[in-house]
Amino acid sequence: MNAKQIDQQTLLRDETDPLTHTPVHLLSLEKVGKHYGNIIALRDVTMAVDNGRVTCVLGDNGAGKSTLIKIIAGLHQHDEGTLHVMGDVRKFNSPRDALDAGIATVYQDLAVVPLMPIWRNFFLGSELTTGFGPFKSMDVQAMKEITKKELADMGIDLRDVEQPIGQLSGGERQCVAIARAVYFGAKVLILDEPTAALGVKQSGVVLRYILQARDRGLGVIFITHNPHHAFPVGDRFLLLKRGKSIGYYDKKDITLDELTAQMAGGAELAELAHELEQLGGHTQALKEVQAEVADVTETKPESAPRHA
Amino acid sequence: MANTATLPPAPASAGDERVGRRSPVQKFLGRPEVGALVGAVVLFIFFASVSQTFTQPNALATVLYGSSTIGIMAVGVSLLMIGGEFDLSTGVAVISSALTASLFSWYFSMNAWVGVGLALVVSVGIGFINGWILVKTKLPSFIVTLATFLMLTGLNLALTRLIGGSVSSPSISKLDGFDSAHAVFASSVSIGGVEVKITVFFWIVLVLIASWVLLRTKVGNWIFAVGGDANAARAVGVPVTKTKIGLFMAVGFCGWILGMHNLFAFDAVQSGEGVGNEFLYIIAAVIGGCLLTGGYGSAVGGAIGAFIFGMANKGIVYAQWNPDWFKFFLGLMLLLATIVNLIVKRRAELK
After folding, report:
1. What's the CA gap between A236 and A230, in Å, rounded?
2. Could you list the residue range(s) of the whole structural domain that residue A298 is in?
3. Contact between chains at B232 and A160 (C-beta distance less than 8 A)
4. CA of B173 to nearest chain A CA: how many angstroms apart?
5. Are A238 and A55 contacting, i.e. CB atoms less than 8 angstroms apart?
6. In degrees, to the nearest 5, what angle opens at C-alpha A229 toward C-alphas A214 and A301?
7. Between chain A and chain B, how many beta carbons pairs sit less than 8 Å apart?
8. Which of A28, A89, B240, B308 could disulfide-link to A48, CB 3.0 to 4.6 Å?
9. Smallest Cα–Cα separation from B82: which of A132, A95, A120?
10. What residue range is the signal peptide (chain B) (predicted)?
């Protein structure tokens, strides 16, 4: 195999805490595992997130990506391994805990309430208030203005912040969710398949926001099953398969083709080609798959026996 | 970051070419309570035209009183429905509250206010239990509160007979504190020679507080959010369970006020009363534009819904019709108001 895996220590050499200048990861996982009853959803996952870096988590359906982010976001608790935030061992009991630690998640379903206006959604759970005691009320004017300004900074020109958020397009909603996380001082931003339901153009828009968030110094965890989306923006790549890590690479050590090959799994493709051949008739499909197999095995010869 | 003082004024607030001009009328039509308001106006004109006495100040005061006895509960029920839940136990919970106050202070011959205080604890406690079971079991609120409804109905009858020996609670008019409690919960205020029941003021104050909470506090934001999408709300850090339990407790509080009025307006309560009233409160909220699925509605809407009730209820009497028609009217109003809501909302959103 050409691509060489990296370990946490090597990564750590380049990272320092902006305040104390000691080498420490913003967020790191060490051999984290999770099981639901006797089902092992995730085991032995090691990864790190740092300021101004995008860590991509790649994997097919059921690879354990969702379980991984639920652990980091505080919706589930891990059973094995350790989770460090700025070097401290942590275990989040609720999403609130994770939020307080500076970890914000933009979920696939975006965690927005469709019937509520954009500004109410933007500040939901962290409303600005004025007054004191029982007369504490929301600072509606300020909240509307900030929503408008923050979204404009992200390049989203909104028509009307009073609009129910359900009327926005998928990409726009995604951007509102990202802008919200950035505004509320997230240090780590988790994006759960932000491009999965989007068209080509909108995906591009969202990828640009990921880079903007990175340039603002956030540590971004980008979860996706599309290596073509991950490679241009990612700094590190963690590949998951059936709940296990099958690779952890730095960008300089891997190419897009290698990444795709790892994701696609040469063995499965070869098997599919074989099946199609036996069935007969599917000449066109067969050719395509065979070409794909040739492609995969060429770039990464020993991947097939590895997962057999 | 949250420093609001240094914020520049919103740059594009002057107008955006992509926003078609929405006239104030269209904006108004997008409000949740429009259907109810249209219904209320139509009904008012209708009764005013068929009955000369309907528009007399005294008659209006009576209509308002009838509305308030539903409206007080509709405030809590509206908030609960916006929060995505349902309470079928409200009708009998009102009577439970009144029975608690009367039986307790009568049995121990205590000051009536002790019973009133205990009733508050019981009412809010029933709300808490409803909410707690709901969030713990994740059962639909329909099932949980239907169970509470049945249990409370049974408890009301059984305990009243056990303690008081009758289907009606014993008279507490001789107890200390009865007069002051009567003054607080069941007196009338004279405005320009017209006697207006104090419940009307309770009602108005509750609607004002509920509207303020809903539209201008963060708790209101949470109520909309837990009703609109509880999972999304939890994910962004809204305390979903606390909000839901709190809503049930608020309904309990409204039930306490109405229960105390029912008790002190006379001096005794019938233990079998209240069954079926829960639907009146829910209907008032629905007519007022609260979505059955949660996440949308207003406290003012619930109040208008209750006012429609009051008008239909008393208007039939003033028009000298047979009161048997009341329920028919109610059904018709419910259907028409919700259809108008639907149409108006769709049209307003398309514009």
Report:
1. 9
2. 265-308
3. no
4. 36
5. yes
6. 120
7. 104
8. A28
9. A120
10. none
Domains: count for chain A:
2
Whole-angstrom Cα distance, residue B301 to residue B79?
11
Domain around B266:
41-350
What ipTM goes with this model?
0.77
| pTM for this predicted structure | 0.78
Contact at CB, B1 and A137, closer than 8 angstroms: no
Whether B9 has its CB under 8 Å from any CB of chain A: the answer is: yes
CB atoms under 10 Å from CB of A299, counted, come to 20
Q: How far apart, in whole angstroms, are the C-alpha atoms of residue B351 and residue B346?
A: 9
Per-residue pLDDT tens over the stretch B207-251:
999 999 999 898 999 999 999 888 888 878 889 999 999 999 999
**Chain A residues near residue B239 by CB distance under 8 angstroms:** 96
Domain check: are A216 and A270 in the same one? no
CB within 8 Å: A137 and B224: no
Q: Is B12 on the interface with A (CB under 8 A)?
A: yes
Token pair of B190, please?
């004279």
Same domain, A181 and A248: yes
Domain annotation covers residue A64: yes
**Are residues B216 and A152, on separate chains, in Cβ contact within 8 Å?**
no
* Burial class of residue B103, CB neighbours in 10 A (0-12, 13-18, 19+): buried
Choosing among B3, B19, B211, B221, which should be mutated to test the A contact, i.e. which has the most A CBs within 10 A?
Answer: B221
Token representation of residue B174: 């001789």
B49 in A contact zone (CB under 8 Å): no
Whether A290 is covered by a domain: the verdict is: yes
Query: Nearest-5° angle of CA B25, CA B31, CA B36?
Result: 100
